[in-house]
Amino acid sequence: MKFVFFSPQFPASSIEFCDRLHKAGATVLGIGDASYSHLAPRLKNVLGEYYRVADMEDADQVLRAMGHFIHRWGRIDRFESLNEHWLEKDAAVRTDFNIPGIRSDFIENLKHKSKMSAFFKKAGVQTIRQHKYSSRAGVEAFVAEVGYPIVIKPDQGSGASNTVKIDGKQGLDAFETAKLPGVSYVAEEFIDGIVLTYDGLVDRDGQVVFAASHRFEQSIMDVVNTNSHLNYYCLPFIDPEVEEAGRAAVKAFGIREKFFHIEFFQTRADKRIVALEINMRPPGAWMTDAINYSYDMDVYREWAQMVVHNTVGGPFTGRYYTGYASRKNHIRYVNDHRAIVAAHGEKIVHFAPIEDVFSRAMGNFAYQFRSEDFEEVRAIVRFIQDSEC
């Protein structure tokens, strides 16, 4: 298999995916905007060739890179970035060069939140009531139906960027003034709940061959808008209702040979499962590593084996709750790094700074830790994030 990895140098987890592809027997070819000399040695060691482009957004430069690879290596079997930002670019290149995978004719269904709901409904999964933000009058009519608060977000995009909670008419007035020109928005009913994810691998035959779940008790929207720190947990089990809804969604979207990341709300009042969105990529924010720590596995390897050979090992059994707790530079914390390591070093499995581009949501520095006791993991989160303000 000849696999072109788009942006193999960023984010850092891309290196792990490239490494496992190489070990699975694939020829890994890279296209990126970093100079070759700046690539990590581990990445250089697994790339059959690297083609630098000055601007990864420039379609002509990417097409020339692909032309070079085809001339030198022959037919390209896969093209992938595993990155939400490049979803449309990935599909365009696959379409232009007849490479298996999601093509341009389907990509709109994955880019726009307003289009995702049709597939969740096809799957029989309850979805958030939603309204395309085309006029103030239309949004007010939507509010009359669902009531305040509502959430307004860009129809296209990932994370919680430019997402706001509107509590009343004054907030809607402020949004009308601040909204970005040329951006399409959707209004959604506000769901009071936690987020449970369904993350995993689906093979070439459309079968879910591995899955895991993360629990977010904080609102990412609030974390971003208040510039606060974040925590979440990888669970050693999947809620049965999340499993049922997730499998139905994977089938409805017709996903093949992909890593997927699906987000559901679990309402606080009555524990209903409500679909939020689907992403055709690995979960972010160190969540792939959290899966490895919770299940004592190498999910990068399993993904690569699935792509190259359509096989996955296992079965894998969850054992640990793996926590993630970030810190922000502007917050004064009670316990410093030395105290954290002294108190919980035997449970900590990883700590490192976060790339600046992700820091607004993910923090400036983060820790991962695991235990078979969920309450112990919660206590470590509190110890790390206990602040003086």
Write the layout of secondary structure elements.
Layout: E1 2-6, H1 13-23, E2 27-32, H2 41-46, E3 47-52, H3 59-73, E4 78-80, H4 87-97, H5 104-111, H6 113-122, E5 130-133, H7 136-146, E6 150-154, E7 164-166, H8 169-178, E8 185-189, E9 193-202, E10 208-216, H9 220-226, E11 231-235, H10 240-253, E12 258-267, E13 273-279, H11 287-295, H12 299-309, E14 321-327, H13 337-344, E15 348-353, H14 359-362, E16 365-371, H15 374-385
Parallel strand pairs: 1-2, 1-4, 2-3
Antiparallel strand pairs: 5-8, 6-7, 6-8, 9-10, 9-12, 10-11, 11-14, 12-13, 14-16, 15-16
Helix pairs in contact: 1-12, 4-5, 5-6
Concise structural overview:
Helices cover 38% and strands 25% of the residues. It has 15 helices and 16 strands. It starts with a strand and ends with a helix.
